[in-house]
Automatic annotation (TrEMBL):
One Pfam family per UniProt: AceK_regulatory
Residues of the Isocitrate dehydrogenase kinase/phosphatase (AceK) regulatory domain: 15-334
Annotated localization: Cytoplasm
Domain Isocitrate dehydrogenase kinase/phosphatase (AceK) kinase: 335-604
Gene Ontology CC annotations of this record: cytoplasm
GO biological process: glucose metabolic process; glyoxylate cycle; tricarboxylic acid cycle
Gene encoding the protein: aceK
Swiss-Prot/TrEMBL catalytic activity: L-seryl-[isocitrate dehydrogenase] + ATP = O-phospho-L-seryl-[isocitrate dehydrogenase] + ADP + H(+)
Record's keyword terms, sorted: ATP-binding, Cytoplasm, Glyoxylate bypass, Hydrolase, Kinase, Nucleotide-binding, Protein phosphatase, Serine/threonine-protein kinase, Transferase, Tricarboxylic acid cycle
Function summary: Bifunctional enzyme which can phosphorylate or dephosphorylate isocitrate dehydrogenase (IDH) on a specific serine residue. This is a regulatory mechanism which enables bacteria to bypass the Krebs cycle via the glyoxylate shunt in response to the source of carbon. When bacteria are grown on glucose, IDH is fully active and unphosphorylated, but when grown on acetate or ethanol, the activity of IDH declines drastically concomitant with its phosphorylation.
Protein name: Isocitrate dehydrogenase kinase/phosphatase
Binding site for ATP: A340, P341, G342, I343, K344, G345, M346, K361
GO molecular function: [isocitrate dehydrogenase (NADP+)] kinase activity; ATP binding; phosphoprotein phosphatase activity; protein serine/threonine kinase activity
Length: 619
């Protein structure tokens, strides 16, 4: 029970110290996000990537700092529970009029569970549900920047309004021809507005901060006309420096030309692709993140709030919201966790809840001899993916420890499978003492569920390739598979195990990689051709007769494992035969080592305003 009176001054001091710890965290987080503007202006691509990696570590560092301060100054872990009840109530008071209350609640949870060594999300000392509303938070200070700006053009002034929208971001790097770019955007808009009557409320709303990721800066907003709202995004890129440069291959940091609007993206699907769970987090300077999430939710109503927080770099808040959504789903469902369908992995044990669109992955205790790895090495691979630019081709993961599930929601066969392959990760007990037995998983990853690519292909094979739709499904999947690998290559990633089962198909038909235990940086691999046999004995040998180093990769050997089906081979060889050539991989490795950062677009290349580059291309 909560105390009737707040009579502990120590409780207030601890709550205030925790709030100071959070405020320091968000101040540093926001400062680093704001610096993305300068890195974009100066084409500091490596700096941008480094900042994105380092920012992910900010949260845990600030939590650790706060825990150390509370233990040193207040011996917080030794305080009785009635003091901790008061700490939470004082903290709630400090959240009134705060601009990031939901993030501060999550920070409180992180610090408190570290000090009290709580293993479960359910207790009176943390925020199981939000205590303070995030609705309609505003900064009323005169110099404060609004969450979004509204513009009220007419058809006659649309072009100059587009120019004004871009100018308001005050980018300190010149555009090649902003008037021309505005015309390109207007042309793209005209197809949606030319036969539409403009209503009294016709307006354009644009979020006040640009969204920075990799080599792009994105304007994000919506067009409102009557009862219709049309989401849009405008990617701004640096043009390649110098005549004749390939606009699609990337350039070295600092080596760039003037700015240009590269495309105009419209509609929820385009925005979903831009904010995909398979892409790196944006850097955005937000004073009131909940207001940004609310605006983005109006553009993508099907996207869970937890994934929007993740996309904004607020992954801990994303985890909190995911877990709340998960608990809510469990209360309103009755199906059971089961072993996930598909080919069993050698390193990860995967299970799911059929009614819930995610899968749960835990690292096994034992691996076959060909998997020369350890639990810590596997966790390191997943951390690499978390910190890397995922270029729309690697699924984001949520990492949890000591997760409790109701025992009666597990199929017995799944419990036995965990006991057999990951006994160190399993505890079954009534740890809370409430009379209900629970399954406690020590450590797991959670990912969006996709259709495994091998199953997706098999569905088409089962339908029969004489069926035009089935054949189209195979062709599309194989082309997408190769494109996914090439995007990973451009991002300096070698997938390691390229079997079909390690890739999944999303709702929009994108192929995404999700098995990370053999992932490597491309630049750490040595790509070789298989040496010609020196004699007949070597040619006929079933064993490898040549030396193979631990980082050696022989791309021409991929074929037998991937291309057993004739139709698959035909499509693959037509579109992606270069993936079987060591020279392809080696050339990309050398470009990356030379400092080049490749362009990987979160939209189809045919959406680009490529004609503007062609205007000046040498004939």
């Amino acid at each position: 029970m909560f105390p009737q009176r707040l009579d502990s001054s120590l409780a207030y001091d601890i709550a205030k110290a925790m709030m100071d710890g959070f405020n320091r965290h968000y101040r540093l987080f926001r400062t680093e996000s704001a610096r993305a503007k300068h890195r974009f202006e100066t084409a500091d691509w490596h700096g941008q990537q480094r900042a994105q990696r380092e920012r992910i570590e900010f949260y845990d560092l600030r939590v650790k700092e706060c825990v150390m301060r509370l233990e040193k100054e207040f011996k917080a872990g030794e305080q009785p529970m009635d003091v901790w009840h008061q700490i939470k109530l004082h903290y709630i008071g400090l959240l009134v009029n705060h601009h990031q209350p939901e993030l501060a609640e999550t920070f409180f949870n992180s610090v408190t569970t570290k000090i009290l060594h709580r293993t479960h999300f359910h207790n009176d000392f943390i925020f199981v549900r939000p205590a303070v509303s995030t609705e309609y938070i505003e900064n009323d200070e005169p110099a404060a920047r609004p969450t979004y700006r509204s513009y009220y053009p007419t058809l006659a002034t649309l072009r100059e309004t587009i120019v004004r929208i871009i100018d308001n971001f005050q980018l300190q790097h010149a555009f090649e021809d902003l008037e021309r770019d505005a015309g390109d955007v207007l042309d793209a808009m005209s197809g949606r507005l030319s036969h539409v009557k403009l209503r009294a409320n016709f307006q354009i709303q644009v979020l006040s901060s640009l969204f920075y990721r990799n080599k792009g800066a994105y304007v994000v907003g919506k067009i409102i006309n009557g009862f219709v709202e049309l989401p849009f995004a405008l990617p701004i890129l640096h043009k390649p420096a110098g005549p004749g440069c390939d606009a699609g291959r990337g350039q070295a940091p600092g080596d760039s030309g003037p700015l240009a609007i590269d495309a105009a993206l419209f509609g929820e699907d385009d925005l979903q692709a831009l904010f995909s769970f398979a892409r790196a987090y944006f850097m955005v300077d937000m004073e009131i993140p909940s207001a940004y999430v609310q605006f983005l939710r109006s553009l993508m109503p099907r996207k869970p709030r937890n994934e929007i927080y993740n996309a904004l770099g607020l992954a801990k808040q994303g985890k909190t919201l995911f877990y709340r959504d998960f608990l809510y789903h469990l209360r309103h469902s009755s199906d059971k966790f089961r072993s996930a369908p598909g080919i069993k992995g050698m390193v990860m044990l995967v299970f799911d809840l059929p009614s819930f669109p995610y899968v749960f992955k835990l690292i096994k205790d034992y691996y076959p001899p060909q998997k020369d790895t350890t639990r810590e090495q596997i966790k390191g691979k997943y951390l690499l993916v978390k910190q890397h630019d995922r270029v729309g081709r690697m699924a984001d993961t949520l990492e949890y420890s000591e997760v409790a599930f109701a025992r009666d929601r597990f199929e017995d066969a799944l419990i036995e499978e965990i006991r057999q392959f990951a006994p160190s990760q399993l505890e079954i007990s009534d740890r809370d003492g409430d009379g209900h037995e629970e399954v406690i998983i020590k450590h797991l990853y959670i990912e969006r569920r996709m259709i495994p690519l091998n199953i997706y292909l098999q569905e088409a094979f089962d339908a029969g390739l004489d069926d035009a739709r089935a054949r189209e499904q195979v062709e599309r999947a194989v082309i997408e598979y190769g494109n996914a690998i090439k995007d990973l290559v451009a991002a300096n990633i070698f997938p390691g195990d390229m079997l079909w089962k390690n890739f999944g198909v999303t709702r929009n038909g994108k192929v995404v990689f999700y098995d990370y235990d053999e992932i490597e940086y491309l630049t750490d691999c040595n790509f070789r051709r298989v040496p010609a046999p020196r004699n007949e004995e070597e040619e006929m040998s079933g064993e490898v007769w040549y030396s193979v180093g631990p980082r050696d990769v022989f791309p021409e050997t991929f074929g037998p494992f991937l291309l057993g089906n004739d139709t698959v081979r035909e499509v693959f060889m037509k579109h992606h035969s270069d993936l079987l050539d060591a020279a392809f991989w080696q050339s990309h490795k050398e470009r990356i080592q030379a400092g080049h950062v490749h362009d990987v677009f979160p939209y189809d290349r045919d959406r680009r305003f490529v004609h503007r580059f062609a205007r000046e291309a040498p004939r």
